[in-house]
Amino acid sequence: MNRWPHRLGLAATMAVACWITTSAAAAQNLHGAMPMADQAQKFAALKPKEAAALASTRIDPVIWQSVVPEDNTLTPARVALGEKLYFDARLSADGTVACATCHDVSRGFTDQRPVSEGIRDQLGRRNAPTTMNALLMQTMFLDGRSPNLEEQAKLPIINPIEMGQPDGAAVTKLVANDAAYQPLFKDAYGRAPTYEDVGRALAAFERTLVFLDSPFDDFARGDVHAISPQAQDGWVLFNGKARCVSCHALNPSNPLGTDNRFHNIGVSARHQDFEQLATRAQIELAKNSNPHALDELALSTDMSELGRFMVTRDRADIGAFKTMQLRNIVLTAPYMHDGTLQTLWDVMDHYNKGGEANPYLDGGIEPLALSESEIDAVVAFMATLTDKRFADQAQTILAAQRTAAATKRPFRDNALALRQLIPFEQRVTGKGGK
Amino acid sequence: MPRRARHTSIETKHYAERDALFDGLRHLDRRAFLKVSAAAAAAAAVHGMVPQSFMPIDVAYAATSGVEPFRIAYISDAHLYERAVNERFVRSLLRAVDDVNHLDPQPDFVLFGGDLAQLGQAGELDLGAQILKNVKAPMHMMVGEHDWFLDLGEKWQALFGQPTYSFDHKGVHFVVLNSIHEDDFWTARGMTPMQRMQTVAGLDNGLQGRFQVGAPQREWLKQDLAKISKQTPLIVFSHSPLYKYYRPWNFWTEDADEVQAILKPFNTVTVIHGHTHQMLTNRIGNIQFHGMLSTAWPWPYAPQGLPPLTIQMDRADPFNPNDGCGNGGVEVHADGLVDKVYNLWNRNPVTVSANYLSSRGTKNVPAKPNLVSF
Amino acid sequence: MRMLIGTRAAFASLALLAVAALHAGAQDAAPTATAAGTAGGEMEVKLCDNKTTTTVPADQPRTAENGQKIASALMAQWLEKNPDTGWVKDELERHELVMPADNNALIGRGQGATYSAITSEDVLLWRNETVKFAAEGSTIFHSGDKLKSQIAVSCDMCHPHAANTHPETYPKFQPQLGRVALLRDMINWCIEHPVRGEKLDPDSANMRALEAYIMAQRKGAAMDYGRR
């Protein structure tokens, strides 16, 4: 058995515990992220004026109460501890990866990459969801395998591809031996650090990441000039012809634009051996079911493409991934669970043609026959869901996307979109197009 | 652990298991059969939802009736309009054909359960025939009322031959009926053919007659069945249910009692029917009845008359035109009884086994729905 | 416009007759449509009742399409003068309608200006209007054309006799709309998506009639708002 990863992890932990960071920082691999100190500064500027957003005015009070667990109510101490942990790359086996590496304040609280990069530059298989507004998601991860933020936070730290710690105990030891952390845990939870509390603190911090102050919110509250006429057309299409709202629900109790469910819209079907994998996995997965093993499997094998099925083992969930939130969507490109769609126009093209035919396709996805101007309108609407604090950043990104989309639209298929060719037709008759 | 090593061994292991299963099944020595089937059942025990293609044949059925176990598939109730009118129903039929073509192993044959066209028009029937030509396995066609009442079967017969026929396969006697005849309701009203068709096309249209097999066809059935022994397993394909479920929607066969009387003397009788667009299960005497799913749209359960053995399907989501729809299969056992497989799209498949019916709903009970129709 | 089953056929034959008459010329036309010349290059086309007329340009090409337009115009006028009085009976024969509550017990009762001395004629009047309103909804419910469906789908295809419409459960959160809906919101959503028709103005006659039919069919179900 190969013990090197273990040994390296232990060695790294010990080195880190001796606090030799400042010189290491210069040579440190940031994995594309903004340096942690800079991120922390940037975040300080983003924070709302009222005390740590403990009482967020953007979220319905009944809903707010329901998402905060009894054993982890928000206190300034817990939030501060969580914040420190979030930006602490020493939590990873080689000291280069923090939560903020893949959930970077300057990059939409994600990493704006197709798939994420962890320790030793290993690449995972999935696109990092944003931590913004994550407190309102009913499950975490693209396959919903964690029921809440507390559980989610604990998994990347011990994932061999992401932060690479061998187990929770190693992490606990690390923070317990740190003079700076000891009093913070005492203040936050009144006890010595445990791995569960690490998860709780991170969750408490993430519950302050509320970014729901967008032009669309002003419009929804009655300011008809808050968004452009084009965006208003897009909103009508969103609720109508474009068929978005049925999965991307937007209402005051659930302002994210997700139904918290899992749908196969065909993105995974673009991977070559998806259907073969589906058949194999249905039998193979009967053998392995603890969360840690699933987590590993999800990130390191082709099985990742099977999505929610890995968690529920329901055939209905093969290739199904969570409907992601639409809030701040301009900032969180590239899109889909594997980051294969670069721009919002690519996303619209994918839906317009009815996704990708495969035996497990959600039948709700069908060709939409949207015109170019209708597509532009829906994109314009989506752009209005950006929190005002990121307006400038989003403007730059959207302009870049628009330029890119003007030259190439790799997912566009007019024959399918306009219903001249019918989904499944090529598979069955072999005729028409690709 | 190195990723590559894990992969190779999984694949190899899977295919080895599968080969062993099918090898074993070829030798109907009971001991070998049991051993191999047990292994397959273990390998395939994933929440009762093994892929349709890899369903182990239930060991419980001993070879008694000279039947070599086999499986067939079905596609039913496509209700096609021409492409330019409605491409949604075409998509669904194509999806069903795609499913059936990807079955591994392939079924012995595929039944089309009736209502290929929506308004019986030549363009619709031609389109359906063209699409079904892509089915890899051999097809047997059955007529439905939507195919029939525009021209009283002229185009159907030109395309597919006689609507009523029988054949034998691996020890089972199959009968295909035209069970959607109606007494003439159109002449007195001076209806045009299209008016007649549109009347029949409305499920809740009270002007039409009730479905029947009719005396001439019942006579044919008697003669046809006179040729086989009472021990020969019988599977009857019919569009209407051959029992009386809900008259206002023609979920009904007016001469069901007479037809059942003809079938009753046979030891093992199963009726597979279309028309109802829902999961439906019934047992009357020794006759077992199973409904087929539609590819086009699901129907709600009728307010009265639902056979008590029926395992209902959950209410469909109107956003998803494929929800509550699908195709399926029939697994025929050595004793000639069948397990009915419902391959629901975007849901887990459901199997209603012969055991469930034989035990009057006490054994092998499939999961009950939790979101019933109103 | 409500039509008997037979009038569609009548439409078609009128079109043929109109075209035939135009081709045949004014003099040899059978006493069906007479085309008399008028000043300014226009032509008057008359229906077989010798009363209903319409005017068309004299040099209009004599195509089947134009013939159909003429026939439709004549038919529209004729129907206005001869409303299709048997339509309710026809609709009820075709599609069973749950009858409204029986108000006979109120005959002879009542006080005040509006609700005084209720008569049997009153009860008949109320019932008749109520049934007609619901029956109107039934005709729309069962017609892809009236719903302006682009895919020839009508409501009854998924909801025979308005089954599974459960109007008593509204208002409720409707996942397909992502928000709380009233019955009419869901009707419109269904028109837009499964039917792919034209959404109705919520206060339009058609929407009101559809609601009426759906509620009529569910008579007796207890109000149960919010139930999924």
Summarize the structure.
The complex is a heterotrimer of chains A (about 425), B (about 375) and C (about 230). With about 425 residues, chain A is an all-alpha fold.
Query: In which order are the strands of the major sheet of chain B placed?
Result: 3-2-1-12-13-14
Helical fraction of chain C: 25-40%
Q: Which H/E pattern describes the elements of chain C? A: HEEEHHHEEHH
**How many strands appear in the DSSP assignment of chain B?**
14
Secondary-structure blueprint:
The complex is a heterotrimer of chains A (434), B (374) and C (228).
Chain A: H1 4-17, H2 22-27, H3 36-46, H4 61-67, H5 76-86, H6 99-102, H7 149-157, H8 168-176, H9 181-189, H10 195-206, H11 215-220, H12 229-239, E1 262-263, H13 274-284, H14 291-300, H15 309-312, E2 321-322, H16 344-352, H17 372-383, H18 391-407, H19 414-417, H20 425-429
Antiparallel strand pairs in A: 1-2
Helix pairs in contact in A: 5-9, 5-10, 7-10, 12-17, 16-17
Chain B: H1 3-26, H2 30-43, E1 70-75, H3 88-101, E2 110-112, H4 122-132, E3 139-141, H5 145-148, H6 154-160, E4 165-169, E5 172-176, H7 193-201, H8 215-226, E6 234-238, E7 244-246, E8 251-252, H9 256-263, E9 269-273, E10 281-284, E11 287-291, E12 326-332, E13 338-344, E14 350-352, H10 354-358
Chain C: H1 5-24, E1 35-38, E2 42-46, E3 53-57, H2 64-81, H3 87-94, H4 120-141, E4 172-174, E5 179-181, H5 183-192, H6 205-217
Antiparallel strand pairs in C: 1-2, 2-3, 4-5
